[in-house]
Amino acid sequence: MKRLAVTLVFLLLCSDTFAQLPSPPADEALIRAAIAAQADAWNHADIPTFMQTYENSPDTTFIGATLRKGYGPIRSRTQRRSRWAN
Question: φ, ψ for residue 84 (rounded to 5)?
Answer without folding.
Answer: -100, 0
